[in-house]
Here is the input.
Amino acid sequence: MIRTISSLLFLLCLGPLNAGGADRDVLFLEGNRAFESGKFEEAVQNYDQLINAGESSPDLYYNLATAHFRAGSTGQAVLWLRRAALLDPTLPEVRQNLAFLRSQFAFLEFADSDWLQFLSDLPSSLFPWLVSLLFWIGLILAIIGFCLPAFRRFRSWGIALGITCLMLGFVVHRIADYRQSRIAPENFATVVGDKVEAVTSPTPTAKPVIELPPGSELRVLQVDTNWVYADIPGELRGWVRTNQIAQNWPVFQKTAADSQ
Amino acid sequence: MHSNLSRYIIVVLTGAILAGFVPRGIRAQQQGFQPSISATALSDRVAIGEIGVIMVKINGGDAKVPQTIPVEGLEVVQSGRESNISIRNGVRTIQMIYSYRFRGNEPGTYTIPPITTEVGGATISTKPFTVTIFERDASAAVDATRPLFAKLDLPKKEFYINELIPFTVTAFVRGRNSLRDISHVTFEHENLITGGFSATNGSGGEIGSTYYSSVAMPSTLFALKPGDFRIGPASIGLRLLDQSSGFGFPSFFSRTVAQEVTTNTVNVTVKPLPDNAPLSFTGGVGSFKLATVASITDVSVGDPISMKFVVTGKGNLQTMEAPVFSVAQTGIWKTYEPSKTLDEERDSDGFSEGVVEFSRVIIPEAKVDAIPPFELSYFDPDKAEYVTLKSDPIPVTIRADNTAAPAIERPGEAAASPAPSGRSLSPASKPTAQHGDFLHIRTASPRWVAAGELGKRGLGFYLVQTLFSVAFFTILGFGAVRWWKSRERREIHTPLSFRKAVKKLPGAGTNRREFFQSVSEALEIWQEENPDAPDKLSEVVDQVSGRCNAILYSGNSQPDAPVSRNEATEFHTILERLLKS
Here is the structure.
């Protein structure tokens, strides 16, 4: 009896989870089917439904990018490949397709140094961990010689190591700050519109700075209502219309162009 | 239109009044009158674009006439009407006059068909007649018999596609200062692109023996298609000075009136450009010079360089596109769509030189020593041949950068272009990718991840923070407890000094026993601290100590009562003096 009740309770708990999982798998398969039958727009709609429902998957993002590419939206294809790479930087298909797009379309990308690339590749959650560990270890090492008689002998070593850890923690914190403000994916946007130009001021009559082919990467510096002030690869800066770009991350800060 | 209408109303009313006084016999004669209709053109020869007038007269009453007369190739529209009433030999006659404006754009003879209408129950029709639309050439455009006319001057009648041709439209008006303003100039042709008519040059002179004021408006045009075309007439809106009073005398007050005048037409032949255009021909026709500047000459592989091309010369800068590499640079230089800057005030007008600037971003994909030459070809209409301008190579320093340089050789690159230095790859170390197409979608079951997982701190993070903080504060608490205890121990074992004893002395209002015990202890400490004190001072201390003992132990005083303010002050003063001594 008890076993039966516990089984029922388990099924009741598991039921909704399984139903949600089944739904998203079905939608994913429907998207795949539409893609296989050459209905790329329909495939995009199916994948979009999943994303609008809050589902995240590198495979989903990758498939959406592929469907966008086949439907003729190069900018959207590059955007979703970049998003897929953020979820799973090791996905070879993403790197390969980005290389293909680079060989076919002259979109602009930031060419970061090895050090910045390394920083960019590190998971963003690593930094708070590192900072907090160094902070706590430094503090504990600094006080342990004073507070615990057993460690009195190592008091000077403890203080030295503790201060070193605190200094390292401070350095890592500064690096994390720099990464957050400059290299983190939240700072980057992708040009998704066609015939996009960066211009010298946020006015319709402004002169052009450079043409930005679809898929070009921008580092967002300032966001106004309809305009974004951004770093452009090649040490350039200019204003771009908000509805012509989409932020790389998070997914749900969608622009008008993104939702088209 | 309004004046016609009011005149018509007045005439009709007058007619009606007069009709009231006409004897019955006269009215009877009107009834026997036969209605008639006739149509004539004021001038049966009208130049292309100019407006002619047809008058339709109806005798014997009013009738309904059409607003337009359908004639193929002509635009005939009713423009006004007028009525006259006359009485001759006792017979009252009503005459209606309808005017039609017509205009033709193709030369030829056009037949105006009969206009049929009904007057007093009888159906009457005009007779068909012809009008001729003719081409007015430039020499006939200047006509001193007309009060105003306009002329289109085109110096070249035969030119190439895209060749910039200057031309002038001039308006002439009889009289000095009679031309006040130009309201608009319309000059359109489906095969022509014309510049604006922003500049005007006013002057005047005698034609025949009559003085004419004139305004010349220069502009440029170029053709889009080859072939023989008639261009014009241009239409010019004028504001003229009108000094007539309407009674045959000059008016005291001058006023301006709007008039429209059309120019002559010109037949031109547009020749196609020769077929042997070089690859670098981008549409420029004229005579030009090229200057090239690179924004930066010290870059890393993958860094953009902005190339600026300044083209100066006489000719059509509007149809010109940016220079291109002399030799294809696939895999060595990536190029982007150029931008073009051509300000209207810096454009060539066909006589003077203009300037156009192009900007093109190029990115080195390999280490090379120079930016290769760019080419710009244009067609020189004077020489009737293509001319190619070539820029010099620009030396650059390109530093290798692994992050920017693509590590994969592209298909067909080796055959198409020379292998750039520093890009040789060992086939064993890295396979050659073809990159023929986008990879297919992933059909395996997807790996779902929690939404917003990227960069978020999970429960583990906060758990670890809690553990660390618990450990830290435990150690810190342990240390704090130890420190507190040792401090207490130190305090117990440390003898009290006289200074501290004085400081710890309670104040007024405290229990007398407590107060005097503290005083007594303080005095004992003083004695211990000052064994060699002067006798007089020792005596004072003994006396005070005796007072304290008497209060504490004699049983005469009330030890539990509060100490008075005076007593407390007195003993405080004594002890502080001892402290200072």
